[in-house]
Amino acid sequence: MAMTRSFCFALFVVVVCGIFGQGSTSTASLGNTLETMKRKLENLERGLQQVQRSINQLTRCQAPFVQLGSSCYLFSYMKKSWSDAQAYCRSMSSHLATITSWSEDKKIIIYVQNNFPDYFTWWIGGNDMASEGNWVWVENNRRVSYSNWGPREPNNEDNEDCMEIFHDKKPEWNDHLCHLAHQFICEK
Ligand SMILES: [Ca+2]
Ligand SMILES: [Ca+2]
Ligand SMILES: [Ca+2]
Fold first, then answer.
1. Ligand 3 centroid distance, CA of 127 (Å)
2. How far is the CA of 5 from the centre of ligand 3 (A)?
3. Domain co-membership, 73 together with 56
4. How many CB atoms lie within 10 A of CB 187?
Protein backbone atom coordinates (compact mmCIF):
# COMPACT_ATOMS: atom_id res chain seq x y z
CA MET A 1 0.00 0.00 0.00
CA ALA A 2 2.85 2.35 0.96
CA MET A 3 4.51 1.52 -2.33
CA THR A 4 1.35 2.26 -4.28
CA ARG A 5 1.09 5.65 -2.57
CA SER A 6 4.75 6.43 -3.46
CA PHE A 7 4.12 5.36 -7.02
CA CYS A 8 1.03 7.55 -7.27
CA PHE A 9 2.91 10.52 -5.86
CA ALA A 10 5.74 10.03 -8.36
CA LEU A 11 3.21 9.78 -11.19
CA PHE A 12 1.50 12.98 -9.99
CA VAL A 13 4.84 14.82 -9.98
CA VAL A 14 5.64 13.60 -13.49
CA VAL A 15 2.21 14.65 -14.83
CA VAL A 16 2.23 18.08 -13.13
CA CYS A 17 5.78 18.78 -14.24
CA GLY A 18 4.81 17.72 -17.75
CA ILE A 19 1.84 20.08 -17.84
CA PHE A 20 3.77 23.03 -16.45
CA GLY A 21 6.78 22.25 -18.63
CA GLN A 22 4.62 22.19 -21.74
CA GLY A 23 2.94 25.42 -20.59
CA SER A 24 6.20 27.34 -20.36
CA THR A 25 7.28 26.03 -23.77
CA SER A 26 3.97 27.22 -25.28
CA THR A 27 4.32 30.62 -23.61
CA ALA A 28 7.86 31.03 -24.97
CA SER A 29 6.74 29.93 -28.41
CA LEU A 30 3.80 32.39 -28.32
CA GLY A 31 6.21 35.14 -27.27
CA ASN A 32 8.49 34.34 -30.24
CA THR A 33 5.53 34.35 -32.64
CA LEU A 34 4.35 37.72 -31.31
CA GLU A 35 7.87 39.12 -31.59
CA THR A 36 8.11 37.91 -35.22
CA MET A 37 4.69 39.39 -36.04
CA LYS A 38 5.70 42.68 -34.43
CA ARG A 39 8.86 42.82 -36.58
CA LYS A 40 6.84 42.01 -39.71
CA LEU A 41 4.32 44.74 -38.87
CA GLU A 42 7.14 47.23 -38.32
CA ASN A 43 8.63 46.28 -41.71
CA LEU A 44 5.21 46.63 -43.32
CA GLU A 45 4.75 50.05 -41.74
CA ARG A 46 8.16 51.18 -43.03
CA GLY A 47 7.22 49.88 -46.50
CA LEU A 48 3.93 51.79 -46.43
CA GLN A 49 5.71 54.99 -45.38
CA GLN A 50 8.12 54.55 -48.31
CA VAL A 51 5.19 54.08 -50.72
CA GLN A 52 3.49 57.19 -49.27
CA ARG A 53 6.70 59.22 -49.75
CA SER A 54 6.93 58.06 -53.38
CA ILE A 55 3.26 58.95 -53.99
CA ASN A 56 3.81 62.39 -52.41
CA GLN A 57 6.89 62.93 -54.59
CA LEU A 58 4.99 61.93 -57.75
CA THR A 59 1.90 64.02 -57.02
CA ARG A 60 3.91 67.01 -55.77
CA CYS A 61 5.17 67.98 -59.22
CA GLN A 62 2.27 67.84 -61.63
CA ALA A 63 1.60 70.08 -64.65
CA PRO A 64 1.95 73.01 -65.04
CA PHE A 65 5.03 72.33 -62.87
CA VAL A 66 7.96 70.41 -64.30
CA GLN A 67 10.51 68.35 -62.41
CA LEU A 68 14.13 69.35 -63.05
CA GLY A 69 16.50 67.35 -60.87
CA SER A 70 15.23 67.31 -57.31
CA SER A 71 13.13 70.49 -57.67
CA CYS A 72 9.85 71.34 -59.25
CA TYR A 73 9.35 74.54 -61.29
CA LEU A 74 6.64 76.44 -63.08
CA PHE A 75 7.76 78.53 -66.07
CA SER A 76 5.00 81.06 -66.55
CA TYR A 77 3.95 82.46 -69.93
CA MET A 78 2.04 85.17 -68.04
CA LYS A 79 3.75 88.48 -67.37
CA LYS A 80 3.43 89.99 -63.90
CA SER A 81 5.23 92.43 -61.63
CA TRP A 82 7.68 90.75 -59.25
CA SER A 83 5.27 90.99 -56.26
CA ASP A 84 2.28 89.77 -58.27
CA ALA A 85 4.43 86.93 -59.63
CA GLN A 86 5.35 85.93 -56.08
CA ALA A 87 1.64 86.13 -55.07
CA TYR A 88 0.78 83.90 -58.00
CA CYS A 89 3.50 81.39 -57.04
CA ARG A 90 2.16 81.36 -53.48
CA SER A 91 -1.33 80.67 -54.78
CA MET A 92 0.22 77.60 -56.43
CA SER A 93 1.84 76.46 -53.14
CA SER A 94 5.26 77.62 -54.33
CA HIS A 95 7.49 80.71 -54.37
CA LEU A 96 9.58 82.60 -56.89
CA ALA A 97 12.56 80.35 -57.63
CA THR A 98 15.49 80.17 -55.25
CA ILE A 99 18.62 79.27 -57.22
CA THR A 100 21.36 78.11 -54.92
CA SER A 101 23.95 76.39 -57.11
CA TRP A 102 25.42 76.32 -60.60
CA SER A 103 23.94 72.86 -60.99
CA GLU A 104 20.41 74.19 -60.36
CA ASP A 105 21.07 77.32 -62.43
CA LYS A 106 22.31 75.24 -65.37
CA LYS A 107 19.20 73.01 -65.34
CA ILE A 108 16.96 76.09 -65.49
CA ILE A 109 19.05 77.78 -68.19
CA ILE A 110 19.01 74.68 -70.41
CA TYR A 111 15.26 74.26 -69.90
CA VAL A 112 14.59 77.91 -70.80
CA GLN A 113 16.86 77.81 -73.85
CA ASN A 114 15.23 74.62 -75.13
CA ASN A 115 11.62 75.53 -74.39
CA PHE A 116 11.35 79.33 -74.46
CA PRO A 117 13.96 80.57 -76.94
CA ASP A 118 11.97 83.79 -77.55
CA TYR A 119 11.39 84.71 -73.90
CA PHE A 120 14.09 86.94 -72.49
CA THR A 121 13.30 87.88 -68.91
CA TRP A 122 12.20 85.77 -65.95
CA TRP A 123 11.62 86.97 -62.43
CA ILE A 124 13.19 84.77 -59.77
CA GLY A 125 13.05 85.10 -55.98
CA GLY A 126 16.05 87.31 -55.15
CA ASN A 127 15.44 90.88 -53.97
CA ASP A 128 17.13 93.67 -52.03
CA MET A 129 13.96 95.59 -51.11
CA ALA A 130 14.61 95.57 -47.37
CA SER A 131 18.22 96.71 -47.51
CA GLU A 132 19.96 98.01 -50.62
CA GLY A 133 22.67 95.65 -51.82
CA ASN A 134 21.74 92.88 -49.38
CA TRP A 135 20.19 90.27 -51.63
CA VAL A 136 17.93 87.66 -50.05
CA TRP A 137 15.59 84.95 -51.34
CA VAL A 138 11.89 85.59 -50.86
CA GLU A 139 11.33 81.90 -50.04
CA ASN A 140 13.12 82.02 -46.72
CA ASN A 141 14.78 85.45 -46.41
CA ARG A 142 18.20 83.75 -46.63
CA ARG A 143 21.13 85.67 -48.06
CA VAL A 144 21.94 85.01 -51.72
CA SER A 145 25.26 83.14 -51.67
CA TYR A 146 25.56 81.49 -55.09
CA SER A 147 24.99 84.10 -57.83
CA ASN A 148 25.21 84.47 -61.58
CA TRP A 149 25.08 88.24 -62.09
CA GLY A 150 25.82 89.58 -65.56
CA PRO A 151 28.68 92.04 -66.13
CA ARG A 152 28.35 95.18 -63.92
CA GLU A 153 25.19 93.83 -62.27
CA PRO A 154 23.51 94.35 -59.90
CA ASN A 155 23.77 98.07 -60.68
CA ASN A 156 20.61 99.33 -58.90
CA GLU A 157 19.87 101.62 -61.82
CA ASP A 158 16.82 103.75 -60.84
CA ASN A 159 16.57 101.65 -57.68
CA GLU A 160 16.24 98.16 -59.11
CA ASP A 161 15.45 95.73 -56.28
CA CYS A 162 14.21 92.55 -57.96
CA MET A 163 16.18 89.71 -59.51
CA GLU A 164 15.59 88.41 -63.00
CA ILE A 165 17.25 85.95 -65.30
CA PHE A 166 18.02 88.04 -68.35
CA HIS A 167 18.37 85.77 -71.33
CA ASP A 168 20.31 87.56 -74.01
CA LYS A 169 23.52 86.07 -75.43
CA LYS A 170 23.66 83.86 -72.38
CA PRO A 171 21.25 83.79 -69.46
CA GLU A 172 22.58 85.80 -66.50
CA TRP A 173 21.09 87.62 -63.55
CA ASN A 174 20.17 91.28 -63.50
CA ASP A 175 18.51 93.52 -60.94
CA HIS A 176 15.48 95.16 -62.49
CA LEU A 177 12.55 97.43 -61.60
CA CYS A 178 10.10 95.37 -59.54
CA HIS A 179 6.93 96.87 -61.03
CA LEU A 180 7.76 95.75 -64.58
CA ALA A 181 5.79 92.81 -65.94
CA HIS A 182 7.90 89.77 -66.82
CA GLN A 183 7.55 86.04 -67.16
CA PHE A 184 8.54 84.32 -63.95
CA ILE A 185 9.68 81.03 -62.49
CA CYS A 186 8.01 79.48 -59.43
CA GLU A 187 9.59 76.65 -57.46
CA LYS A 188 8.34 74.19 -54.90
CA1 LIG B 1 15.97 76.00 -55.75
CA1 LIG C 1 18.65 97.44 -55.34
CA1 LIG D 1 20.36 96.15 -63.35
1. 12
2. 111
3. no
4. 22
Residues with CB under 5 A from ligand 2 (ion): 128, 156, 161
For residue range 159-175, list pLDDT tens digits in order.
Answer: 999 999 998 778 899 99
Q: Where are the alpha helices (DSSP H) in the chain?
A: 2-60, 82-91, 102-115
Q: What is the pLDDT of residues 47-100, one digit of tens each?
A: 999 888 777 767 789 999 999 998 999 999 899 999 999 999 999 999 999 999
Distance 98 CA to ligand 1 centre (A): 4
Kind of pairing between the strands at 95-96 and 182-187: antiparallel
Query: Domain range spanning residue 24?
Result: 1-60
The domain total for the chain is: 2
Helix (H, G, I), strand (E, B) or coil at 41: helix
* Coil, helix or strand at residue 68: strand
**Roughly how many angstroms between the first and final C-alpha of the chain, as a whole number?**
93
| Domain identity same for 54 and 73 | no
